[in-house]
Amino acid sequence: MKKIKVAPSLPEYVEVNEIGENRSEVIAYPFESGYAITLAHPLRRLILGSSVGYAPISVKIEGASHEFDSVRGMHEDVAVFIINLKNIRFKLPKGVQRAKLNYKFSGNRDIIASDLITDEVDVVNPNAFLATLNEDAELNFTVVIAKGLGYVQSEDLIDEIDSDAIALDAFFTPVKKANYRIDNVLVEDNPNYEKIIFDIETDGQISPVDAFTNALETMYKQLSVFNGVLDVEINATPVKRTTDDSELKPYLEQIDSLGLSARSFNSLDRSGIQYIGELVLMSANEIKNIKNLGRKSLDEIAECLDNLGYGEDFELPDSTRASLIKKIEQLKESSK
Q1: How far is CA 295 from the centre of its chain?
Q2: Which residue range is the domain that position 279 belongs to?
Q3: Are 323 and 242 in contact (CB under 8 A)?
Q4: One domain for residues 122 and 160
Q5: In terms of pTM, does the model score above 0.70?
Q6: Rounded-to-integer distance, Cα 226 and Cα 217, Å
Q7: Does 242 have pLDDT greater than 60?
Q8: Using one digit for the tens of pLDDT, what is the confidence trace for 125-148?
Q9: Is the pLDDT of residue 243 over 60?
Q10: CA-CA distance, 198 to 178, in Å (whole number)?
Q11: Which of 51, 140, 171, 284 shows the greatest Cβ crowding within 10 Å of its Cβ?
Q12: Which long-range contacts link 153-161 to residues 24+ away (Cβ below 8 Å)?
């Protein structure tokens, strides 16, 4: 006899199975009928769309002024060289958002991805081919690797790169495949419960499990806007979530609490930045453009923010952002 329920039962089991290089299954069960597809479909979209990766965003080749040029002694035209370069999957150290790398090659040889590995950057497909040089060739080029999300057209990167460099379409997404299937599973005498089996494969920049957990975190953050539903009157005019001062407190800590080196602290102090929240409100590019802030200082600040949970992927809710901006303005005004 069918029992009367007052709430849907919760799934209890989760498994992770490694089924190949950079490929894993994530399995969860048992879901009541209909719940599996409700969760699986948006999670798949988030796995594909919210995973952060690395890609070259610009290249400057000595002796070549545009992508349809050629380089003396290199078998490939610049256009083919760029295609090969974009097929190389780079990986930056934790906390590093961007790296500018200089390379010099000469003589009769093939250049492959492993030749581009340095202390500043790694590659996850070391056998990928880049170019072939003749005995009298000399190839000097500079490439900028950045951390990012999704796909960005070269036209949108013009303001991000050097004026004499060639902008590249950047495909950051590290997930090669994210599929799922739903199987029935027997619970007691009911065969209509469901099991979700995710099949996730990445290019090696991140692991399949990291891609899955990143998607979960993104879903939680997106759904957090509904936490304020209980504070909204039915049929009332829509209101924004409000933020009290206690929620803002971590962002109002002075920057000296970050434990930065004197050089990094002085650069921020001279720029009028007093609070951690000011850095959280800034984009990576805005922080990069702070006057007299060198690469080491930039990396140090990025690492400190990442350790506090305010890394590049962190986003403040709009209501919190607005309240924080207003509070910082008030504090700075009162301190004058």
Answers
A1: 20
A2: 240-334
A3: yes
A4: yes
A5: no
A6: 15
A7: no
A8: 999 999 999 998 899 999 999 999
A9: no
A10: 7
A11: 51
A12: 157/57, 157/58, 160/57, 160/58, 160/285, 161/57, 161/58
